[in-house]
Amino acid sequence: MSVLAPATVFLMLLSAPGGSVSGQGRAWMLGPFEKPNGVNPVITPGPASQFRSAMSDTVVRWEEHATFNPAAVVKDGSVFVLYRAEDASGERAIGGHTSRIGLAQSQDGLHFTRNSAPVLYPDTDAQRQYEWPGGVEDPRIVQAEDGSYVLTYTQWNRRVPRLAVATSRDLVRWTKHGPAFAKAYGGKYLSLESKSGAILARVEANHVIAAKLGGTYWMYFNVPDILIATSDDLIAWTPLEDMNGNLLKVLSPRPGHFDSWLVEAGPPALLTEHGIVVLYNAGNSETDGDSRLPARIYTGGQALYDLRNPAKLVARADAPFIQPTEDYERTGQYAAGTTFVEGLVPFNGRWYLYYGTADSRVGVAVWDPKRTDRGEGGRPR
User: How confident is the model at residue 192 (pLDDT cuts 50, 70, 90)?
Assistant: First the structure.
């Protein structure tokens, strides 16, 4: 496969025709995903879970208030979900509590048991200035070629959200590497408001493994536009810029659509036979959005990028593939409703999509490719 160098990517993108790009057909999309009856939400707040916080040196109920926005990976024949958990401290507002990352395990992808303590949290370490007092939020995860795990997450000091990277061999003990863009362009983007790192990956059996194209790793990230970055080692990342030195936008909101307010990178991007499929979170605008949807509702979209050029948009769905339809998706901290997708794994012949509901709980939706009635779909390869 021939992959263009970053400089050539810029030229192709800037010379590509303008206007909207939409999917003329659904063969490239993943799904359809169905929400299984009787199991959702699969992870809910746990008032009994206790943990000694380094910030206060007191025991806190670390997942008492909310459990949501999950990453997912398959390890040793089980599905592991890393989810954002909030205690009840701080202001009664989204982002006003302290967040930590919890770990849950399932043998069927639907029923979970949880670790009693978080596995990633604000500590007395080198990341304190970036993670106190808001904590660590919204993880995404891929496996590296050497079998280790790479986690992207948001550091929240209640001033600037920063996309950061951590690695682990066992999903329990994590090494924090700090802000993802700290070294890029001499530190130019260290204080960039950044989050939502979806690393490009290939699928091998039940594993989603970070994949290089053109000798480099790629990552879709951020909100309200989706940007793109590259890396040699999955730890230090460089955001791509256009010819004017501005950050390169590869997906932006569309007036009149479900994604008119904002777009935000979702689970790891996947190499498929049709191209690179990016699942993303979409906000509906109050003023120029889709009138069939509530204002500021979060739904899920899909976009397709060129296999030779991960910055080149090829197709884009005109309607959400998942949206809030159930009470648990519209009841909680975010009453407008969310199906906030962050975790996607193949598991025993099916695909399991894990998402945050109303910033309060974790839900799951399942796609069985053998049962789809719209052809092969965008089968990952």
Answer: very high
Q: Count the Cβ atoms, other than its own, within 10 Å of residue 290.
A: 22
Residues 234-248 have a mean pLDDT of: 97
Residue type, position 216, single letter:
T
Cβ neighbour number for residue 350 with a 10 Å cutoff: 14
Residue 130 DSSP code: H
- 7 pLDDT band, cuts 50/70/90, is very low
Tracing tokens 């890029």 back to the chain, one arrives at 184
Over the Cα atoms of the chain, what is R_g?
19
Would the pTM count as exceeding 0.90? Answer: yes
Count how many residues are written for the chain. 381
For the residues of 302-369, what is the DSSP string, one character each? EEEEETTEEEEEEEE-SS-SB---SGGGSSSS-TT-B-EEEEEEEETTEEEEEEEETTTEEEEEEE-G
Residue type, 308: R
CA distance to 219, 306, 369, per residue, from 380 (Å)? 17, 14, 11
Task: Name the burial class of residue 44, with classes exposed (0-12), middle (13-18) and buried (19+) by CB atoms within 10 angstroms of its CB.
Answer: middle
Residue 101 has pLDDT above 70, yes or no: yes
Please give the C-alpha separations between residue 68 and each of 8, 64, 162, in angstroms, as whole numbers: 39, 12, 19
pLDDT tens digits for range 62-92: 999 999 999 999 999 999 999 999 999 877 7
Contacts of 146 (CB under 8 A, 6+ apart): none
Of 317, 365, 371, 370, the C-alpha closest to 26 is: 317
* Whole-number Å distance between alpha carbons of 265 and 138: 11
- CA dist., res. 239 & res. 230, Å (int): 7
Report, as an integer, the average pLDDT of 221-247: 97
Segment (H or E) for 13: helix 6-15
